[in-house]
Amino acid sequence: MAESAYDNLLDELEKLPGIGRRSAERIAFHLLRQSAESSVHLANALTRFRTNLKVCDTCGHVTESDPCPICADPKRDTWTLLVVEQPSDVVAIEQAGAYRGRYHVLMGRLSPMEAIGAGELNIAGLLDRVKSAKGDDAITEVILGTNPTLEGDGTALYLAESLTQLGVKVTRLARGMPVGSSLQTVSKAVLSDAIQARTQSAS
Ligand SMILES: [Zn+2]
Hints:
By secondary structure, this protein is of the alpha/beta class. It has helices at 5-14, 21-33, 36-52, 69-72, 87-96, 123-132, 150-164, 188-196, and strands at 54-55, 62-63, 80-84, 102-105, 141-144, 169-172.
C-alpha cells in the first residue's frame, strides 16, 4: 500500500539536518493550520532554489552562475581571501561594502559535538586554492572570519595551523565591543579582543 501523504511528508522532512520525528510533526501541523497557498509557496521556493542555485566551484558560495559573480569579478583582489562559515556571512560582509577581496565558504565549522570534522567542510578546497594560486593571482593573505564562538574559534585555530604551513599570512577579523553593549555584559573573550584590537581615538 502506498504511503500516506502525511507519512511521506514526515519522511522527507526527517531527512533534513536537525529535524527529528517530533519536529517533522510540528512542521506538518503548522502547514495544516496555514492556508493551502502558503504550502504551495514553500514548495515553489524549494523547487526554484534547487533549480536555479548551485555552489560556486571556486569559493563554495551559493550562486546562480558558476563561478559566482564575486569570483568572476576582475576588479576584486585575488590576493586576499576571507574565510567564512556560511553563504549568509558573505552576503552580510558584502552589504557592509568594506571588503574588496574574495571569499571561501566552509559550509559550517568544526564541531566535535556534532561529529563535524575537516572532511565535512570545504577545507581541502581552501588549502588547494591557496597552494595552486600562482604568480599575479597568488594568495598572500587569508583572513579568518569564522564566528566568535567556541567552535568558530576552534575552526580558526585549525585553519591557521594548516595555512601557516603553506607560507601564507593568516589574520583574524578583529572583534570589538558590540554597539549598545556594556563592559559588564560582553564575554571575557570579546573584552580581551577589544583591548588588543583597540584603535587610536580621534581627537
Ligand atoms: Zn565563487
